[in-house]
Amino acid sequence: MPGRSRADSHTTSAAPQKRARRSGFIWRSLCCLVALLLILLPAADAGDRSIWSPATPTADSINSLFLLVIGITGVIFVLVQGALLYFVYRFRRRDPADTAEPPQLYGSRPIELAWTVAPLLTVFVLFLVVVRTVTEIRAAPPSNDALRVTVIGHQWWWEFRYPELGVTTANELHVPVGDDQQPRPIVLDLESADVIHSFWLPRLAGKTDVIPNHVNTMWFETRTAEVYLGQCAEYCGTQHANMLFRVVAETPADFERWVEEQRRPAAVVASAQAGWTLFRDLACLNCHTIRGTTARGTVGPDLTHLMSRATIASGSVPNDREKLIEWVYDAQSLKPGCEMPGMKITREEATSIADYLMTLK
Fold it and tell me: What's the pLDDT score for residue 1?
């Protein structure tokens, strides 16, 4: 355009670029804040799996470490983002006629020392507190009177074996609570039957990987009779998110009563004979164990005392008659991708089998 100065042309072309850079920076900052909230809010609002309500000294140590790391990194985040926002605002405009190059500083030892030493000190402090915390939670149990349980991760359910008690169950870990006079630590030997899983007890003991052909160990003790929720924390396939379990902490007397009940073999009730016959003829006994019968399968969970558990499908479905019928009839509708095969049976046959399973208490 005639009469238009070079400065005006430069201003016209540079302004959109500045706005684009500024909006891009603001957008990235907002994304960082949203990502931080997405990390923290689920942990803060996880109900019985909340990391903010530790129920054991072990979980409390992990929680304290988490808060310290969040605090340090939060301060760094605020300082860096605050400086960036300040400079974006402070130097958001520039005289188009000012084409001078800003002062170039090289070899400033104070600056180089600051941005080298400060990160090193931060990492060193975090390293020390992590080592201290890991040493604390990996230390030997404070008592020799520990209950030892073998935990086996399957796709996608948990098997719990009590070798010293002769009990095997699935998806519900029963443990006795202790007190100051008689602590009852629980030692878990973690194994995997297939792929890598991660055994996570948010309120009790953190998480430990469950690796094929390798045994990892973790322990905890609790002094509050309560039900704690846990889950797999390592992606292990289609139903990873529904690989849940429950830890039922109960008084020593209740625990002993539970052990006695679990040791009893199952008995076929006369009214459920038809269901047992279908269970046997459809080869369900090749995958499941029901002690007291000819069912000796080890692929699926032990069903001897199925109705003593609050859930089926590894904690993802309530254990009631309607859900049990649906599970037997079409398990894939409740847990797509699970290893429970479709038996191509009628709903009446599924009802008969479910009525038999309802007797396994």
Answer: 47
How do residues 229-276 score in pLDDT, each as one tens digit?
999 999 999 999 999 999 999 999 999 999 999 999 887 777 788 889
56 within 8 A of 205, measured Cβ to Cβ:
yes
CA angle 162–155–219, rounded 5-degree value: 40
Residue 37 structure tokens: 């909230």
**Would strands 147-154 and 186-192 be described as parallel, antiparallel, or unpaired?**
parallel
Q: Which residues contact 73 (CB under 8 A, 6 or more apart)?
A: none
Number of H helices and E strands in the chain, helices first, is: 8, 12
- Residue for token pair 């990996």: 138
Let me know if 164 is exposed, middle or buried by CB neighbors in 10 A (0-12, 13-18, 19+). Answer: exposed
Structure tokens at 189: 């030997």
Do 147-263 and 270-357 share a fold? yes
> Domain spanning 9-94+106-138 has what CATH number?
1.10.287.90
Domain boundaries, the chain: 9-94+106-138, 147-263, 270-357
Sequence-distant (6+) residues with CB within 8 A of 323 are 312, 317, 334
Fold (CATH) for 147-263:
Immunoglobulin-like (2.60.40)
| Per-residue pLDDT tens digits for 29-51 | 677 667 666 655 555 445 566 77
Sheet of strand 186-192, all strands in order from the earlier edge strand to the far edge: 167-170, 157-162, 147-154, 186-192, 216-220
What sign does the CA torsion over 49, 54, 57, 63 have?
positive
- Indicate the helix (H) or strand (E) that contains 194: none
The Cα–Cα gap between 7 and 264 comes to: 92
Helix (H) or strand (E) holding 343: none
What CATH number should be reported for the domain whose range is 270-357?
2.60.40.420
Average pLDDT over all residues of the chain: 84
